[in-house]
TrEMBL record:
Keyword Cell membrane: no
Domain GHMP kinase N-terminal: 103-186
Domain of life: Bacteria
Descriptive protein name: Galactokinase
Pfam families recorded: GalKase_gal_bdg, GHMP_kinases_C, GHMP_kinases_N
InterPro entries (UniProt xref): Galactokinase (IPR000705), Galactokinase_CS (IPR019741), GalKase_N (IPR019539), GHMP_kinase_C_dom (IPR013750), GHMP_kinase_C_sf (IPR036554), GHMP_kinase_N_dom (IPR006204), GHMP_knse_ATP-bd_CS (IPR006203), Mevalonate/galactokinase (IPR006206)
Alphabetized UniProt keyword annotations: ATP-binding, Carbohydrate metabolism, Cytoplasm, Galactose metabolism, Kinase, Magnesium, Metal-binding, Nucleotide-binding, Transferase
Domain GHMP kinase C-terminal: 288-367
Record keyword Protein transport present: no
Family indicated by similarity: Belongs to the GHMP kinase family. GalK subfamily.
GO BP term (any one): galactose metabolic process
GO CC, any one term: cytosol
């Protein structure tokens, strides 16, 4: 399968010159991510294990001295101009066709406190929208790197990830955790990123499916997801309520699962706790398997994570369930939904020799149900955010 070409920075620079009447001062790129395992653990102060995709967002940028951010995108018709010293975008009720620009403008407003200023930005993305592959975080991180470089502001990457997360929480109004921004800024080729979302400490874990004769397929289920709806926030609130009832500062601190389940009366909260506590253990087990060179064994962890997300956390959707089921029946080692849920993508770990059979089985399962055919991406673990030119 042919992967989309890397961002054409020449074309982006030319587009910038056409849009803004001058050359950009540089071009920056930030990738989308796939989370191998550790879902809905980040805002519970837990562990995640994402890796960076070869697809992402590129931003051509130049400073401006009028205190304004002007954002244009090759994927959007509307140009958006906003002052850097405004309040929060979330409180300004932007019309739907400007919502995409809340991410770069939000980042510019948060980073202003650290010494950055106005900018002209032209954005290009080759990440599918609504596929749960973190196009929003990639847009935030490419913008954040561009602004820091342009204004000579030095912020280390873990701190920059927290600022980009803050922009999404406060400016956009989406109560996401730390995973996606950290993945985009900290991931490395051939590695997955083990991140402790409480301390912010991370380590690079070898992750090279091809070397083990395996393929990790990303399956865009074509059921579009939007986490700005209430479901994600409700899950987060349920976890916080359970932690408070259990007298811990976050569900990461639950050490005795049986005792915690016995202490909670609400069956919904019990299910949420069951997922978060076991998912944190699965991340640690997965890291152990990868470090031991036992990558195919990860399949069982992915299956267990999927069942937990489906039955305990209740964030899966029919296309993701059918994908995992069809893949495993066709000989994949395992699979699971990825990201926040309610639509988006799934991953499937399969021996390379069975990849075509597995893909065909998934496609046939969709066709039997009359669903839009899925899209497949091969996803070698790729480079984190960087300056391109
Ligand atoms: C979304 C959020 F943005 C992340 O912070 C994380 O919570 C994820 O859903 C679920 O693991 O991608």
């Amino acid at each position: 399968m042919d992967l989309p070409a890397l961002p054409m920075t020449g074309a982006l620079s030319e587009g910038f010159a056409e849009a803004f009447g001058r050359a950009p001062e540089g071009v920056w790129h930030a990738p989308g991510r796939v989370n191998l395992i550790g879902e809905h653990t980040d805002y519970n102060d837990g562990f995640v294990l994402p890796f960076a995709l070869p697809l992402g967002v590129s931003v051509a940028a130049a400073r401006r001295d009028d205190g304004v951010v002007e954002v244009r995108s090759l994927q959007a018709a509307t140009a958006v101009t906003a002052p850097v010293d405004g309040g929060t975008v979330a409180s300004e009720n932007w019309p739907a066709d400007r919502e995409w620009a809340a991410y770069p403008v939000g980042v510019a407003r948060v980073l202003r406190e650290h010494g950055t200023g106005g900018a002209s930005l032209l954005i290009d993305s080759d990440l599918p929208q609504g596929a749960g592959l973190s196009s929003s975080a990639a847009l935030e991180c490419a913008t954040a790197l561009a602004l820091c470089d342009l204004y000579g502001v030095e912020i280390d990457r873990p701190a920059l990830a927290r600022l980009a997360q803050r922009a999404e929480n406060e400016q956009v109004g989406m109560p996401c955790g730390l995973m996606d921004q950290s993945a985009s800024l900290l991931c490395a080729p051939g590695r997955a990123l083990m991140l402790d979302c409480r301390s912010g400490l991370s380590s690079q874990v070898p992750f090279d499916p091809a070397a083990s004769g395996m393929v990790l397929l990303v399956v865009d289920t074509r059921a579009s997801h939007a986490l700005t709806g209430g479901d994600y926030g409700r899950r987060r609130a349920e976890c916080e309520e359970a932690a408070s009832l259990l007298g811990v500062s976050a569900l990461r601190d639950v050490k005795d699962l049986a005792a915690a389940l016995a202490a909670l009366r609400d069956p919904v909260l019990r299910r949420r706790v069951q997922h978060v506590v076991t998912e944190n253990h699965r991340v640690e087990a997965a890291v152990g398997l990868l470090r031991a060179g036992a990558l195919p064994e990860l399949g069982a962890m992915l299956n267990a994570s999927h069942l937990s997300l489906r039955d305990q956390f209740e964030v899966s959707w029919p296309e993701a369930d059918a994908t995992v089921d069809a893949a495993v029946r066709a000989g994949a080692r395992g699979g699971r939904m990825v990201g926040g849920g309610f639509g988006g993508s799934a991953i499937v770990l399969t021996p390379a020799a069975r990849a075509a059979t597995v893909r065909d089985a998934i496609t046939a399962a969709y066709a039997r149900r009359g669903w839009t055919p899925p899209e497949f991406l091969e996803a070698p673990p790729s480079e984190g955010a960087h300056r391109v030119s």
